[in-house]
Amino acid sequence: MQRSAAGRAAARRRAAARRRAAAPVTHPTLVGFPPVARRDARILVLGSMPGAASLRAGRYYAHPHNQFWPIMGVLCGATPELPYAQRLLCLRRAGIALWDVLHACRRRGSLDAAVELRSAAPNDLLQFLRDHRQVRRVLFNGALAARIWTRRVQPHVAREFPGLELRRLPSTSPAHAALSRARKLEQWRAACALSPRA
Question: Is 123 among the residues known to form the active site?
Answer without folding.
Answer: no
